Amino acid sequence: MTSKRADVLVDVDWAQEHLEDPNVVFVEVDEDVSAYDGGHIAGAVKLDWKSELQDPVIRDFVSKEDFEALLSTKGISNDDTVVLYGGNNNWFAAYAYWYFKVYGHSDVRLLDGGRKKWELDGLPLSTDAVSRPAATYTAQEPDTSIRAFRDEALAAIDTLNLVDVRSPDEFSGKLLAPAHLPQEQSQRGGHIPSAVNVPWSKAANDDGTFKSDDELRALYADAGLDDGRDTIAYCRIGERSSHTWFVLRELLGHENVKNYDGSWTEYGSLVGVPIAKGA
Amino acid sequence: MCGAPSQGQGLEGVDLSTETVIQGEVTRDGSPVPAAYVRLLDASGEFTAEVQSSAQGHFRFFAAPGSWTLRVLSAGGRGEHSLVANRGLNEAQLQLDG
User: What is the set of active-site residues of A?
Assistant: First the structure.
C-alpha cells in the first residue's frame, strides 16, 4: 500500500502557486452554502452540494447527463485538474471528490485543510464574481465500486469492515445528528451491528489538514480494521464518511472501499434491520 | 435542514423542551470574534461538532445533557471552557487568549 498523497492532495502553498494555472480549477463546496459568497479563493467556482449535486425529487445523485451539463456550465473540462476545498474540515469537499470519482473525473484533488487552513493562515479571500467560459464535459457511467447501497450495508454485518465515522455519542445513540444540528430526527439511534467507530475527526489535525500516513495507518489498525476485508464507511448522510473514504482509499491505498451515502438516515429508518446501541 | 444553520442567539423555532442548546459568544478583550472555529468535545474529550462563530461572535450547538468542553481556535488565539449542560438553554462565553 503506497501513499497516493501527492496525486490527490495539495497544500496551501501549491494552491497559491497555481491560482493562475489555466489547467487548474478551484471549486468550493460547503455545508453552509452561503460561505462562498462571503469570500472564496480567487477564481474558485462554487458548487452547491444540495441544489446542484442532489436530485431535487428522489434521494440520489443527479443523473450523468445533468452532471455533464452542470460541469459544462461551470466551465470545467475533462482534462482540468479540479481542486476541491470547503468548510467543515472539507467534509463536503470530500463528498464532492468522491462524487467526481463516481462520475469518473480523472484528476481531482483536495486542498489539505480546506477553508479552515486557508483562513487560519490568514490567506486572502475574494468576493469578486467568478465566471468561466462554458466547457463540454463528458462523464463516465457511475462507478459503483466505490458506492455502497443499503443491501450491501446490511449484508456487510459481521462480514466486511463497517466503519462508522460519526462522533462517539452518535454511534452510541445518545445523539441523532452531529451537534451543530437540531436533534429532532426521524430515524432510530445507534449503529449498524459489527461496525467499528472511528470518528472522521481522528484522521484530521486541529487545523483541518489530514494526519500523516503513518498516523492514519496506526489509527485504523488500532481500531481493528481487517486488511483482508473490503470496507464500507458510513456516517449520517455520507459526507463525513467521504472524508474517511478519501483517507482509506485515496491516501492509504486500500483497494475495496465504498462510501455508503444512504448512511444512518437511511439505515436507521429501515424497518426490521438490526441496530446496536452503546459504545 | 441539512445545511449548517446560521449562528445566532435567537431561539425562534428551537424546541427547548427537547433540545439541549449550548450557545454563547466568542470574545477577545471584550470584543466579539467572528469566524472563530468553535469545537464541542464530549465527556471523554472526543470531537463532537464544530461551527464557525457568526459576525457577532455567536455560536450554537444542539447537544444532550451531560459534560461538554468547548474549544475555540482562530487566527487570533485559543480558548477553552467546560460545562455541564441540561435540557434547555445553556449559555457559555469563550474568551480568546494569546
Answer: 235
